Amino acid sequence: MPANPVPTFYLYGEPHRAVADGFIHVEHLDDRSRPSEWTILPHAHAGLHHVFWIASGGGAMQAEAQVFRFVAPALIIVPASVVHGFSWTSESTGSVLTLANGQLTEIARRDPTIGGLFAAAEVIPLGDDAAQSTQWHMDTLMRELGWSAVGHHAAVEASLLSLAVIAIRSRGPDARPDSVRPGQQAALVARFRERIEARYRQREPVAVHAAALGVSESALRAACTRSAGLSPALMLDERAVLEARRLLLYSNMSVAQVAYSVGFTDPAYFSRFFSRRVGTSPRRYRTSALDALT
């Protein structure tokens, strides 16, 4: 199988390693952007989510095949495994909060809307009051993570929850609905997503996944429809399409190589599958997407 053309880091520039469930990290925006001349090349993080606080300046973020332009003050959400890169305005300031998926799961138990905040990459413009509160909580996190005073863990969690609330409320009433629902169905869908991530290249039938998860196909279908708004089969297809988009955009693989890489044995069938899901052929997608990013 061809190597993944998109690097996966722990923190940017650091070799990938296992992520501890409770990992939380905050650093100044320019710690990694300034040495890179304000350009962060496309990359991904397995199991680590980002919240960028843009206090001044701005720039553009490439997330998968989309480009988001932003100016301060704003928050940027980058979920784990999303391929992303930045072109910053020189001397932009702010902070980067990184937290492990296990930590997000823990705080999302308090309110399922928090998990829904990390459903996709997005830019959230902030008003003046929200910006002031964000700066205070980012400063608090940076201070609390640097020592172990009494109440340290409570202070960290309080600021994480407050930042999540600021982001959710700043999105406005027309933001997309939460992708996480309380209860056992949401837990089942979370387990299914983990299995998809590990095995989507196998192109296994839904029945195989359901059996491995210890539930019936109908139970898995009901959980996915309610919690994710998609059928299990469509969730599997979307993950394959996402990987195909990445390979077409970030690698020089031929369409046939991309097909084999995402688990298809027949490149012609893959091209028909991709065209049906995306609305254009793999070759045309590659050409148009690259033109849009230049």
Structure description:
The chain has 294 residues and is an alpha+beta fold. It folds into two domains: 147 residues, Sandwich (Jelly Rolls), CATH 2.60.120; 110 residues, Arc Repressor Mutant, subunit A (Orthogonal Bundle). Helix content is 47%, strand content 18%. It has a five-stranded antiparallel β-sheet. Strands 2-7-4-5 form a four-stranded antiparallel β-sheet, with no helix packed on it.
* Helix-strand sequence: EHEEEEEEEHHEHHHHHHHHH
Main β-sheet description: 5 strands, antiparallel
Number of domains: 2
The proportion of strand residues reads 15-25%
Give the CATH level 1 class of the largest domain. Answer: Mainly Beta
Counting DSSP E segments of at least 2 residues, the number of strands comes to 9
Strands side by side in the biggest sheet: 1-8-3-6-9
Named CATH architecture of the largest domain: Sandwich
Number of helices: 12
CATH-assigned homologous superfamily of the largest domain: Regulatory protein AraC
Distance between the termini: 29 Å
Mean pLDDT: 86
What's the overall geometry?
globular
Proportion in helices: 40-55%
CATH-derived topology of the largest domain: Jelly Rolls
Unreliable stretches: 176-182
Secondary structural class: alpha+beta
- Radius of gyration over C-alpha positions, nearest whole angstrom: 20 Å
Indicate the topology.
Elements: E1 24-28, H1 30-33, E2 39-43, E3 48-56, E4 58-63, E5 66-71, E6 74-78, E7 84-88, E8 93-100, H2 101-108, H3 113-116, E9 122-125, H4 128-144, H5 152-170, H6 184-199, H7 206-213, H8 217-227, H9 232-250, H10 255-261, H11 267-278, H12 282-293
Antiparallel strand pairs: 1-8, 2-7, 3-6, 3-8, 4-5, 4-7, 6-9
Helix pairs in contact: 4-5, 6-8, 9-12, 10-11
